[in-house]
Specification:
Layout: H1 2-6, H2 27-52, H3 59-66, E1 70-74, H4 104-107, H5 114-125, E2 133-139, H6 146-159, E3 164-168, H7 176-180, H8 188-193, E4 205-208, E5 211-214, H9 223-227, H10 230-242, E6 245-249, H11 258-263, E7 268-274, H12 280-290, E8 295-301
Parallel strand pairs: 1-8, 2-6, 2-7, 3-5, 3-6, 7-8
Antiparallel strand pairs: 4-5
Helix pairs in contact: 5-6
């Protein structure tokens, strides 16, 4: 203020100002750009993920990559032990002898579905299994529903007046005894260790007048040695003389060598593939292992109702 009062400043113009350009609000432009590029990037990401995802989702893909007959398309079934005490199928209760008083508790744990009946009929049409022969049910990996499929096929065969034996041959990780609430203190593992004159009937457990179950028994030290023994072959021959159908719930093909040993002893082999779980590479690898054996066909587990079955 004092300086101005004494004479002011010596103002000089160094550069004349120029009129600027109005930029306005750029938020709207960013929103429009995001709306356009977002879906494009999303589609591109989905296509990239699809290229690296070889999971099988449809029964048609099962037959495409394996060249196997599609024998059945089973929808997702609730675990048998979660079904309560509802009777799942209607079979005539005709007891083989007076010691069988009631099978109602065991019957409630057996799965049944019309698609399983169709799968069994398709197997019959293909002449597998023949009278008094064995059929092994397996899968590429564990958790694909082969045990449930095995029990369901047993029920379907029983409806056709077949006497059925279900064998839990998954000696490392048995499950049928838990599903059916049966004792596993004795079973296949102990029967394989017993002498040849052992009474086979003492080891099987009836769950219905037409269906008997041979549980896996205590986990042995050497499953490969037991399953590859001559005793196993002799037992299967005995079972085929006493039953119309022998269903073997085996372990998965890629997890252990056990199922490969059993496959060489059976008259027919049935694969189970779970939609949304099995991959193309795993399925192809498993079928290539079984190709030189009696591989009958494949069942699509947890398949959509809208998809068809071709035999």
């Amino acid at each position: 203020a004092l300086k101005i009062a004494q004479g002011g400043f010596d103002w000089q113009i160094l550069e004349e100002p120029e009129q600027g350009t109005k930029t306005g609000n750029s938020k709207l432009l960013f929103l429009l750009a995001g709306a356009v590029t977002g879906p494009v990037l999303g589609i591109a990401l989905a296509l990239i993920l699809e290229l690296f995802n070889d999971t099988i989702y449809t029964p048609e893909e099962l037959t495409k990559f394996t060249n196997l007959r599609l024998l059945g398309r089973i929808p997702k079934l609730s675990p048998p032990y979660n079904r309560g005490r509802k009777k799942l199928f209607n079979l005539p209760i005709v007891f083989r002898n007076s010691t069988y008083s009631s099978f109602s508790e065991a019957i409630t744990h057996l799965p049944s579905h019309e698609t399983l009946d169709m799968a069994y009929q398709n197997i019959q049409i293909l002449k597998y299994p023949l009278h008094c022969q064995t059929l092994m049910i397996t899968s590429a990996l564990s958790g694909e529903g082969k045990s449930t499929s095995t029990l369901g096929l047993a029920v379907s065969a029983a409806k056709m007046h077949q006497r059925v034996l279900v064998i839990d041959a998954n000696l490392r990780n048995p499950s049928l005894h838990s599903t059916l609430e049966l004792s596993n203190d004795w079973g296949l593992s102990l029967l394989l260790l017993e002498e040849r004159n052992a009474k086979v009937n003492d080891y099987v457990q009836p769950v219905h007048p037409a269906i008997d179950v041979l549980t896996a028994g205590p986990v042995p030290d050497d499953t490969v040695k037991l399953l590859s023994s001559g005793r196993m072959k002799e037992l299967l021959q005995t079972f085929t003389r006493n039953y119309d159908l022998v269903l073997i719930d085996a372990s998965s093909i890629l997890d252990t060598v056990d199922a490969r040993i059993l496959a060489s002893l059976c008259n027919g082999i049935l694969m189970v593939g779970r939609m949304g779980k099995i991959r193309q590479s795993e399925l192809v690898q498993a079928t290539e292992i079984l190709n030189n054996l009696n591989l009958v066909g494949i069942i699509a587990n947890e398949a959509s109702k809208s998809q068809k079955v071709y035999v």
